[in-house]
Every structure is written in structure tokens, then in C-alpha cells.
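Progress note, sequence design subtask.
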């Protein structure tokens, strides 16, 4: 049962690698630029050399020959970007996207990515496409995401080909097309892109765009996992846990999950939480479970937030805290988790950790009822309510 569940989860997830934050590694004016003398290049940059301005920005960003100084990197990149260098524009966008407090500015990041993308930089085209795909800075648009990522992929930019493959595999903004996903993944994987290798593993595991071949899936997952691709490490963990395409090995599955979890895979973090909470092949360890659930919940994973909320409600391995349980369930409920909606409805109906609110409880039970049987709870709640207190269709979760 669990074997089938994990494999279905693997296919439904079709994990996205960490595409974002790609950078241009050399100025557009000199793609083959080599290491430079700091004193000489500073003189040239001050005199207006775009190439030298880019090289100084890069040097200060990474501490190459100078002390790392992100503010100085922004300043030099900005000089080259203002004069129209697409590579500097893209890297300036990167620093605004990922920089520390005081520099990070998603609106500025999007602006510079767009300028660079419009000038034909495929790295920036991928970045602005990912902005639209993820709704970064409120710019959600599947259509615009597809347009820019496809432009980058058409330029044979490998990471963009991989991203486009994921779009076709998941059907984000376009009809699902496993055949196109497979062709793109195979082409990018042939260029040694770990994200494409991970996608290829998932496509082989599920028989999407190609005949199912678990052994081939394991091969591609392993290639990507050895390169540090978290989504592949998670996929390989699933294959080892289920014995799909490889001899079952729970310890190796756990090792792969931990590698993936440490690299930020929320799927792996959630899986680790359940493994340690429920003692799946290991000794129960509530502290480990809480730590992994917390990491996944903080990254927005609704299932982990729901499980963690339950641990706080019962005081499992941690001091009981109804307010924290409510907070976690509310977060998961807003993301559509029916179990969190159900639990939160119970809290509002009983007045546990929140003021009693029959109307909100009714709305939450109704939402949970899209996937769970809540007929008993709705009947019980309706009997406690006056007819005028039954919410109308406009009273939804989160309305105050």
C-alpha cells in the first residue's frame, strides 16, 4: 500500500529542481574574459569600460581578488547595466532577488531581468519566466512564463530546456504533453543537466512519454543525485524505499531522503518527518520528526504543517500548544489541506485555542467536505446553530 502511495506521490509531485537565480558568468562584450589585474581593471571601469565594470561587479560579488562586497557588486553591475549590458542586467537582477536585507528588492529584480531578457539573454529569459511561473513579486502568469522560458529553451539554453520540460510534464499554462517533456528532458540530460536527469528519472518511473522502465529511472536519478540534485535524491529515496527498479534498502532510502532534505527538498523533509514520527523502519524520534516537519512547513508545505499542528495539539514530543496548532492548521487550511480544514473546524466548534465560532466552523467543514465525509459534523453543528447564523456562500475560510 505504502509502496504504491509513494510512487503515486512521486509522479504527482514531478519535483522542480532549483532553476532560479541563474547568472551570466561573463560580460556580453567579452564572453571569454579571463582574470584581470584589480588596479588596472578598476581604472578601466572608472573610465567607462563596460567589460571592466562587469568584471568588477563579478569580483566583488564572489570575493575574487577582493573582499566580498555585495554593495560594491551592485554598484559596478549597475554602471554596466545602465549602459545596456544584458549580462550585467541579469546579474544585477540576481542580486536584487537573492541579496541581503537592504539590497533585496523583487520589483527591481524583475525589472532588470526583463531588460536583459528583452535584449535576448537566455539566462534572464529563464529567470523572468520563473518569476512569472512562481508568482514572485505578484507577477503570476503561466502564459508569460511559458513565453519567456520557451524563448530561452529555443536558444538551446540547457536549464531552460529542462524547465520547459517540467512545464509540459505538469501542464502549467499549457496542455500536458509527456512526449514533449520527454524529448526536452532527454536532450538536456544529454548535456549533463542534473535537473533534466531528475525529470527523465520521473518520466521513466511513471511511463510518461516513454514506456515505464524503473531500472532506467533509477539510473537517471542516480546520475542527478550524485551531482547534488535534491529532487533526484528524493526520487532515488522513493525507489529504494519501495524496491522499485532497485533492491529495497530502507537505510539507503533514509540516506537519500536526508541528503535531499538538507538541500531543501520539501518532499524529502515531509517524508523524513513521517518516518521519524511513525517509526517507519527507524526508532520513533519525535524531535527529529518535529525538526523536519518544521523545515517543510516553513517552506509552505501544507501536509507537514498539518502533521506538526497535530503534534502540538496532542503534545507529542513537545509541550502542548493549542495556539501553535491553530496557527499551523490555519496556514495549511488556506493552502487547501482538507485535514487541516477539518481540524480547524473542530477547534472553532469547540472553542479550543480560539473563540468559539460556529459560522467559521461550518465554512471550514464545508471546505473539508470536498474530499472528506463531514456529514456527521455538519449535522451536529447545524443543530447547535440558529438558522440565521448559518453562513451564506460568501463566508469562506479566511474571511473576517
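Output:
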Amino acid at each position: 500500500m505504502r509502496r504504491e502511495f509513494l510512487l503515486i506521490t512521486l509522479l504527482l509531485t514531478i519535483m522542480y529542481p532549483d532553476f532560479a537565480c541563474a547568472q551570466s558568468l561573463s560580460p556580453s562584450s567579452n564572453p571569454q574574459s579571463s582574470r584581470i589585474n584589480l588596479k588596472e581593471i578598476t581604472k578601466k571601469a572608472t573610465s567607462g569600460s563596460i567589460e571592466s565594470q562587469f568584471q568588477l561587479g563579478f569580483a566583488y560579488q564572489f570575493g575574487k581578488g577582493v573582499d566580498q562586497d555585495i554593495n560594491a557588486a551592485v554598484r559596478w553591475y549597475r554602471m554596466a547595466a545602465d549602459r545596456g549590458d544584458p549580462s550585467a542586467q541579469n546579474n544585477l537582477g540576481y542580486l536584487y532577488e537573492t541579496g541581503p536585507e537592504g539590497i533585496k528588492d523583487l520589483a527591481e529584480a524583475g525589472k532588470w531581468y526583463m531588460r536583459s531578457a528583452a535584449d535576448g539573454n537566455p539566462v534572464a529569459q529563464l529567470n523572468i519566466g520563473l518569476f512569472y511561473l512562481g508568482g514572485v513579486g505578484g507577477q503570476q502568469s503561466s502564459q508569460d512564463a511559458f513565453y519567456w522560458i520557451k524563448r530561452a529553451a529555443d536558444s538551446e539554453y540547457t536549464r531552460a530546456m529542462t524547465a520547459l520540460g517540467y512545464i509540459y510534464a505538469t501542464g502549467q499554462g499549457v496542455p500536458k504533453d509527456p512526449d514533449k517533456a520527454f524529448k526536452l528532458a532527454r536532450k538536456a540530460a544529454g548535456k549533463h543537466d542534473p535537473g533534466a536527469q531528475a525529470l527523465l528519472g520521473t518520466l521513466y518511473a511513471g511511463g510518461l512519454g516513454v514506456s515505464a522502465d524503473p531500472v532506467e529511472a533509477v539510473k537517471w536519478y542516480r546520475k542527478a543525485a550524485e551531482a547534488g540534485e535534491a529532487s533526484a535524491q528524493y526520487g532515488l529515496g522513493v525507489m529504494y524505499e519501495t524496491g522499485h527498479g532497485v533492491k529495497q534498502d530502507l537505510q539507503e532510502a533514509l540516506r537519500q531522503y536526508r541528503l535531499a532534505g538538507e538541500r531543501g527538498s520539501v518532499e524529502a523533509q515531509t517524508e523524513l518527518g513521517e518516518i521519524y514520527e511513525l517509526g517507519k523502519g527507524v526508532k520513533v524520534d519525535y524531535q527529529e520528526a518535529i525538526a523536519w516537519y518544521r523545515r517543510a512547513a516553513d517552506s509552505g508545505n501544507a501536509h507537514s504543517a498539518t502533521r506538526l499542528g497535530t503534534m502540538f495539539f496532542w503534545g507529542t514530543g513537545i509541550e502542548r500548544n493549542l495556539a501553535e496548532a491553530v496557527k499551523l492548521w490555519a496556514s495549511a487550511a488556506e493552502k487547501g489541506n482538507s485535514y487541516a480544514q477539518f481540524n480547524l473546524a473542530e477547534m472553532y466548534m469547540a472553542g479550543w485555542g480560539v473563540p468559539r465560532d460556529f459560522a467559521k466552523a461550518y465554512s471550514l467543514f464545508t471546505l473539508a467536505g470536498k474530499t472528506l465525509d463531514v456529514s456527521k459534523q455538519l449535522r451536529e453543528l447545524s443543530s447547535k446553530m440558529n438558522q440565521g447564523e448559518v453562513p451564506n456562500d460568501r463566508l469562506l475560510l479566511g474571511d473576517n
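The chain has a mean pLDDT of 90. Work on this subtask will continue into the next period as scheduled.
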